């Protein structure tokens, strides 16, 4: 049986230094005779350790030592369904590190279509937050158009806000307003973290409104013919958009060691619509505005 010994650790570090991707390292390890499951454990482990040690240099020790309470949709890991008050949601897959859960049937096809219809008339070019200043601006890293709804803005949104809160087992008040994104061919969202990094000067204003983000639910409102997957590069996960499905992930430290670096891969054929729910540690105190992701 393989073990993550000092030789293998050094080999992974060396390859990371050379800019190799986790996928390519895993393939090389499989060719060298390691089990694929082991390789997928070893590479992210070293990435996490390495990131933690890098982050630790300029990160307040408290940010690394203390772990926030996070939403946990599956207290019983073997459960095949999560029952909310108005819908039975199927569990497709779950991973512990990073904490990622894929659900099916979170929204009905009719709910997806209605959210798109209500959003299409008010789409605007998406923006991102400048970590230095906290200000929002358009950027090539995020080539989508989007809009958002206030918490419980209309009956459909209120139904979805409540369902997501029950699914995540996290108070509805801790959620930001539902954000809708539309990507056309070539549209993408480069890998980023959804939390606000405590060391970025611009983060304070965002964190003051209900604490940091601790969880994300990305709901697919459309199928995509090719591309448009939600990718977690440090964990080698690619989630295929399926209308009505959702990917949930949580991050108990606002550091790369959470392994929740994620992005939306370019849409190759068709178009992609998503709804995103970000949730905070505490009640979100600025419900009239939205904090764009980083
Ligand atoms: O569109 C996506 O798959 C995606 C990827 C990364 C959405 C988000 N982040 C987000 O809404 O935060
Ligand atoms: Zn994101």
Ordered list of secondary-structure elements with their pairings:
Layout: H1 6-17, H2 22-31, H3 36-58, H4 61-65, E1 81-83, E2 88-95, E3 99-104, H5 109-120, E4 124-125, E5 128-129, E6 136-137, E7 145-148, H6 155-168, E8 179-183, E9 189-192, H7 203-207, E10 213-220, E11 226-227, E12 230-232, E13 237-239, E14 246-250, E15 262-264, E16 267-269, E17 272-280
Antiparallel strand pairs: 1-2, 2-3, 3-14, 4-7, 5-6, 7-8, 8-17, 9-15, 10-14, 10-17, 11-16, 12-13, 12-15
Helix pairs in contact: 1-3, 2-3
Residues 192, 194, 262, 293 line the site of zinc ion (ZN).
What tags apply to this protein structure?
alpha+beta, nine-stranded antiparallel beta sheet, 2 domains, four-stranded antiparallel beta sheet, binds pyridine-2,4-dicarboxylic acid, Jelly Rolls
């Amino acid at each position: 049986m393989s073990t993550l010994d000092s030789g293998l650790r050094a080999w992974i570090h060396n390859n990371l230094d050379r800019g190799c991707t986790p996928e390519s390292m895993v393939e090389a390890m499989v060719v060298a005779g390691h089990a694929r499951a082991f390789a997928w454990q070893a590479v992210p482990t070293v990435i996490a350790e390495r990131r933690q040690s890098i982050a630790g240099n300029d990160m307040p020790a408290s940010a690394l030592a203390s772990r926030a309470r996070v939403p946990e949709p599956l207290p019983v890991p073997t459960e095949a369904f999560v029952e909310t008050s108005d819908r039975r949601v199927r569990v497709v897959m779950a991973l512990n590190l990073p904490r990622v859960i894929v659900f099916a049937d979170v929204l009905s096809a009719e709910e997806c279509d209605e959210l798109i219809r209500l959003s299409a008339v008010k789409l605007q070019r998406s923006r991102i937050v400048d970590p230095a200043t906290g200000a929002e601006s358009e950027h090539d890293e995020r080539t989508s158009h989007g809009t958002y709804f206030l918490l419980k803005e209309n009956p459909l949104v209120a139904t979805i806000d409540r369902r997501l809160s029950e699914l995540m087992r996290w108070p509805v008040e801790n959620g930001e307003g539902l954000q809708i994104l539309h990507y056309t061919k070539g549209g993408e969202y480069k890998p980023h973290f959804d939390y606000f990094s405590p060391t970025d000067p611009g983060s304070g204003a965002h964190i003051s409104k209900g604490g940091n983000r601790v969880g994300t639910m990305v709901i697919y409102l459309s199928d995509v013919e090719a591309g448009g997957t939600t990718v977690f590069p440090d964990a080698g996960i690619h989630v295929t958009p399926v209308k009505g499905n959702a990917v949930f992930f949580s991050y108990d430290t606002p550091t790369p060691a959470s392994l929740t670096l994620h992005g939306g891969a370019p849409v190759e054929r068709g178009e992609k619509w998503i709804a995103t729910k970000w949730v905070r540690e505490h009640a979100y105190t600025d419900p009239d505005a939205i904090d764009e992701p980083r």
